[in-house]
Write a structure and sequence with these properties.
Blueprint: H1 6-18, H2 22-48, H3 61-73, H4 84-121, E1 132-135, H5 140-151, E2 159-164, H6 168-178, E3 186-191, H7 197-200, E4 210-213, H8 221-234, E5 244-249, H9 255-262, E6 266-270, H10 271-284, H11 288-296, E7 302-307, H12 316-320, E8 327-332, E9 338-340, E10 353-358, E11 392-396, H13 402-409, E12 417-423, H14 427-434, E13 442-448, H15 454-458, E14 467-470, H16 479-500, E15 505-510, H17 514-518, E16 526-529, H18 530-543, H19 547-554, E17 561-566, E18 577-578, H20 579-587, E19 592-597, E20 611-613, E21 620-621, E22 628-633
Parallel strand pairs: 1-2, 1-4, 2-3, 4-5, 5-6, 11-12, 11-14, 12-13, 14-15, 15-16
Antiparallel strand pairs: 7-10, 8-9, 8-10, 17-22, 18-21, 19-20, 19-22
Helix pairs in contact: 2-3, 2-4, 3-4, 5-18, 8-9, 10-13
Length: 635
C-alpha cells in the first residue's frame, strides 16, 4: 500500500482547487497577491530599521503596502535610490507581480471562454414570463416558429423558448436559415431532453403562456410525448399549471392516457385521423387543401371567436351579412358547444360568441350592408342536390395513415364504390397491417407492384378510375426521398393521362412544402402537405385552444364541412357580382358562403391556386361557369 506523503496531500488539494473553475482560482490568486504584498511590505519596513538608505524608512507601513500593491498590479522597478537590499526586494515584488498578473489574465480569459462554452451548450435558465415554449426538435419546428412569428407580430416583445436535443449552435443556424425574418420575436434556444425534468426547468415552463410539444421523428413517437407530459407535471400539479400544452399523437389509444396525465391543460391533435380526413376530403374536392392551409396558418385569414353585443337578439342569418370584411361561420353558445353553420334561425343570445373568419381580431367590425347590395336577378331559384356519389378510386402507395384513409373513404362514398390499392408490400403482410373490414359502401382489392414503375402504372387502366390518391411512402429514410418517389409517380401518371386523353382527378400527399412547387409541372389537381398541415394546426391551437374542437367538427363527416361547389349552381355569371349576392344565394341553400376559387388561377401558387377566403363583400368579381363557391354545408 502506497504511503501518502504531505506532498501528495498538497497535490490532491491543489487538483481539487483547479477543478473548481476560474472564479475560485481568481479569488485564491487575489488572496495570494495580498499575502505577497503584505510580506514584502513588512520585510521592507524591518530592513529599513537595520540598513541605511534602504528607502523603506521614507513612509509608513501603509505607504509601503500601497507601493508594493501598485508594483504587483503594474509590475516595474523603482526608478532610483535605495540600498541593494531594497532593490532586491523591489525586484522580487515586481517578478511576483508579473507572475500573478499574467496568471490573472490567463484565468480571466479561461473564465470567459468557459462561460462562452456554457452558453454554447445552452444550459442556462430562461428568465422569461408569458412566453411560448416549443419542446422537441424535428422538421416541424420551422413551420411552427414561422407561424408563431406571424401571430406575434402585434404583440409586445414576444419570446419563443425552444428546448431541443441537438447542439444549440446548430439549432440556431438551421432556424436562421429556414426562418428568414423573425420580425419582433426573440428566440431563446436551450439544449436538453424534453423528457428530463431538470432539462425542462431550463425553459421555465410553469411561467409560459403556452407549450407546444413536438413528437420526435421516430417509429414510436407517442412514447416520448407521454414521457414529456409526465416530466412536465412531475414538479407541479396540473391544477396549478396555468398554461396550455398542445401536442399530437398517432395512436388514438394513447389519447386517454395523455388526458389522464395532463387533465384539461393538454390539447391533443390526432395526426393520423386528421391527415386521413384532410386527404379524403381533398381527393374528393380538388382545391380544398388550399382552403384548409389558409384557415390553419396565420398569414392571411384565420378563425376567431368574437362576442357581438350588437347582434344579441338577432339570428345567425343576420350575422352572415353583419360584416363586410369578415365571414361568420358558427356560433359558440355561452352554455353549450360550438355550432358550425347552425340553422339560420338560431338566436344569438347574451354571452354567445361568433366564430368568424377574419384577417385579424381587430378587423372584425360590424358594418351595415349597402342598400340594394344583393343582385336578386342573378340568383338562381333552382336547388341542386347531387347527393353521395359512387366512386372508383386508385390508391397508390402505402403508409401508416392509409388504413385511416380507407376507413374515412367508406364514410363519404355511395354503395358500390371500390378502392384498388397498389404497393410493393406482400399481400399477406398488407392484410395483417390494414385490419380492414369492408363496409357496405366500399369494396377493396390489393395489387402488388412498384407505384413508380411505368409498366405497373400502364397495367392499371387509369381511365377507369374517378380519383387517384398517391400516398407518400413512409418507409423511406428521408422526406426528400419520399417526395422524389412521389414526383416520379405523378410525372408518369400525368404523361399517361395525356396519352390516354383521360381527365381523372389526381391528389397526392407530400412531406415537404417546398416540393409542392416543384410538382406544379405534374398538373396534379391537389396536394396535402402532411407535416405542414399538422405544424400549422399545432401553432393555431397553441394561440387559441378552442380551435381544436372547431377544426375537429369541421373535418368530421357528420354535420357541416367545407365544400367547393360549382358557382353556376347558385348564380348567373354573365355580369360581375359582389360577395353579398353569393352569401344570399348560399343562404337560400342553408349554407354559409366563405369564399370562392377562380380556376383561371388554379395553377398559380402566388394566388393561392385560385382560392380566396373571406373576400370583401362589396367588391365585384367576374366569375365564369368553371369557378367554385366555397361554402359550409351539410352535404
Amino acid at each position: 500500500m502506497r504511503k501518502v506523503t504531505l506532498f501528495d496531500k498538497f497535490k490532491y488539494w491543489f487538483d481539487n482547487l483547479m477543478a473548481k473553475g476560474a472564479i475560485v482560482l481568481i479569488l485564491w490568486l487575489m488572496l495570494t497577491s495580498l499575502l505577497v504584498v503584505l510580506i514584502s511590505s513588512a520585510s521592507m519596513k524591518l530592513t529599513a530599521q537595520v540598513l541605511e538608505d534602504s528607502r523603506g524608512d521614507q513612509g509608513s507601513f501603509s505607504d509601503l503596502f500601497w507601493m508594493n500593491l501598485g508594483t504587483v498590479l503594474q509590475p516595474g522597478l523603482a526608478e532610483e535610490g535605495g540600498s541593494w537590499t531594497f532593490k532586491l526586494e523591489n525586484f522580487t515584488v515586481a517578478m511576483m507581480g508579473i507572475l500573478l498578473v499574467s496568471t490573472l489574465i490567463g484565468l480571466i480569459t479561461a473564465g470567459i471562454e468557459e462561460r462562452l462554452q456554457q452558453l454554447r451548450k445552452g444550459r442556462s435558465f430562461v428568465l422569461e414570463q408569458n412566453h411560448t415554449i416549443i419542446l422537441g426538435w424535428s422538421s416541424q419546428i420551422f413551420t411552427v416558429v414561422a407561424e408563431l412569428v406571424v401571430a406575434n407580430a402585434n404583440q409586445r416583445r414576444p419570446v419563443i423558448a425552444i428546448l431541443g436535443d441537438a447542439d444549440k449552435v446548430e439549432m440556431e443556424d438551421q432556424l436562421r436559415e429556414q426562418v428568414k425574418d423573425l420580425k419582433n420575436t426573440r428566440l431563446v434556444i436551450r439544449s436538453g431532453s424534453a423528457t428530463e425534468p431538470n432539462d425542462l426547468d431550463l425553459v421555465n415552463p410553469y411561467s409560459a403562456r403556452s407549450i407546444i410539444l413536438l413528437p420526435p421523428e421516430t417509429d414510436s413517437p407517442d412514447g416520448a410525448v407521454l414521457k414529456t407530459l409526465l416530466a412536465l407535471t412531475k414538479n407541479l400539479p396540473p391544477t396549478q399549471h396555468t398554461c396550455q400544452i398542445v401536442t399530437s399523437l398517432q395512436d388514438v389509444r394513447n389519447r386517454s392516457v395523455a388526458k389522464m396525465i395532463g387533465k384539461d391543460k393538454v390539447t391533443i391533435v390526432m395526426v393520423n385521423d386528421l391527415l386521413a380526413r384532410l386527404t379524403v376530403q381533398t381527393s374528393l374536392q380538388p382545391g380544398l387543401s388550399s382552403v384548409y392551409t389558409e384557415l390553419f396558418d396565420f398569414d392571411g385569414d384565420e378563425i376567431y371567436f368574437k362576442a357581438e353585443p350588437g347582434l344579441t337578439g338577432k339570428t345567425f342569418a343576420d350575422a352572415l351579412f353583419a360584416y363586410a370584411e369578415s365571414a361568420a361561420i358558427g356560433l359558440h353558445k355561452a352554455h353549450g358547444p360550438t355550432l358550425l353553420n347552425p340553422p339560420l334561425t338560431t338566436p344569438i343570445e347574451a354571452g354567445d360568441r361568433l366564430a368568424v373568419i377574419s384577417a385579424d381580431d381587430d378587423t372584425i367590425r360590424l358594418t351595415e350592408m349597402p342598400p340594394q347590395a344583393i343582385a336578386e336577378e342573378a340568383i338562381l331559384a333552382q336547388t341542386y342536390y347531387r347527393g353521395i356519389q359512387q366512386r372508383q378510386i386508385l390508391l397508390l402507395g402505402w403508409n401508416h395513415r392509409a388504413p385511416f384513409i380507407l376507413a374515412e373513404l367508406g364514410r363519404y362514398v355511395a354503395p358500390g364504390s371500390s378502392v384498388t390499392v397498389v404497393d410493393e408490400m406482400e399481400e399477406t403482410l398488407w392484410r395483417q397491417e390494414v385490419l380492414w373490414e369492408e363496409s357496405s359502401n366500399l369494396r377493396i382489392q390489393y395489387q402488388n407492384g412498384d407505384t413508380s414503375s411505368r409498366t405497373v402504372l400502364e397495367s392499371l387502366d387509369i381511365p377507369s378510375y374517378t380519383q387517384i390518391l398517391v400516398l407518400s411512402p413512409s418507409k423511406l429514410h428521408t422526406t426528400q426521398e419520399a417526395d422524389e418517389r412521389t414526383l416520379f409517380t405523378l410525372l408518369h401518371l400525368r404523361n399517361l393521362c395525356e396519352q390516354l386523353h383521360c381527365t381523372v382527378s389526381i391528389t397526392s400527399e407530400m412531406m415537404d412544402t417546398r416540393n409542392r412547387k416543384l410538382a406544379a409541372v405534374t398538373q396534379t389537381d391537389d396536394f396535402v402537405v402532411s407535416q405542414q398541415m399538422v405544424s400549422l394546426l399545432l401553432a393555431q391551437i397553441s394561440e387559441n385552444p378552442q380551435l381544436n374542437d372547431l377544426f375537429d367538427d369541421l373535418l368530421d363527416v357528420d354535420g357541416s364541412e367545407i365544400y367547393l361547389k360549382p358557382i353556376g349552381e347558385y348564380v348567373h355569371t354573365q355580369h360581375p357580382l359582389n360577395f353579398y349576392t353569393l352569401v344570399e344565394a348560399a343562404r337560400r341553400h342553408n349554407e354559409a358562403a366563405i369564399g370562392y376559387r377562380l380556376m383561371r388561377h388554379s395553377s398559380n401558387p402566388e394566388r393561392q391556386y385560385g382560392v380566396k377566403l373571406n373576400p370583401n363583400k362589396v367588391e365585384k368579381i367576374q366569375f365564369t361557369p368553371d369557378d367554385f363557391l366555397i361554402v359550409l354545408a351539410e352535404d
